[in-house]
Amino acid sequence: MRRGAIIGVLASGLVAGVAGAETEAASWGIGIRPAHPEDSAGLGEGVDVTAVVLNERTGQPAAVVEQADTLRLVAQVAAVPGAGARKLRLTCTVDFVGADGVQSEATEGPCFSGSLGGAAVGPKRLNLTLRFQPSPEDLAGTAGIKLHLWDAETGDEAIVVPTYEWRGGR
Q1: What is the dihedral of CA 124, 61, 159, 47, to 10 degrees?
Q2: Which of 30, 63, 73, 165 has its CA at a distance of 20 to 30 angstroms from the CA of residue 57?
Q3: Cβ distance 15 to 84 under 8 Å?
Q4: pTM of this prediction?
């Protein structure tokens, strides 16, 4: 699958790769389901992960994209209220997931190291910047950005997949 221009991918030690799994895609809302530009999940005990695809021009969640606007993935981790202090050492893998469920252009690298909970209150933004433009060559429909997080401290994992409906494709 051809993706639009990737304007920037920044995270320490990113490595490109390709992966694919269509059976998981349906559970993420890929294809014909309505888009959900924000997604969240738990990362083990006491930590939540949230990711959102934003339209860079408007700063709003990008539920529907009708032209080749620049989109941006923003992600953060936060301690669940009342959770004790917890050290995290996260690695993030990011994949584009097309409307046909095909995953491509994976990037991987460290994205957060620090503590949450206890005295470290408030959400912490991940050290991950992904900006991209859907292309007219991309398949129209609900596509997404799969963010897989793995904590080297505990082995806990989480996957969040915010989606957007691309109407400017083939």
Answers
A1: 30
A2: 30
A3: no
A4: 0.82
- If residue 25 lies in a helix (H) or strand (E), which one and from where to where? helix 22-27
Q: In whole angstroms, what is the distance from residue 43 CA to residue 121 CA? A: 17
Q: Which of 160, 166, 168 is nearest to 24 (CA)?
A: 160
3-state secondary structure of 43: coil
pLDDT at 32: 67
Tokens representing 103?
Answer: 């995953």
Residues in the chain where the model's pLDDT stays below 50: 1-22
List the domain range (segments joined by +) for residue 83.
Answer: 6-131+144-166
137 located within any domain = no
Which structure tokens are listed for 78?
């936060």
pLDDT score, position 129 = 79
Domain of 62, CATH number, reads 2.60.40
18: nearest Cα among 158, 136, 170, 146: 146
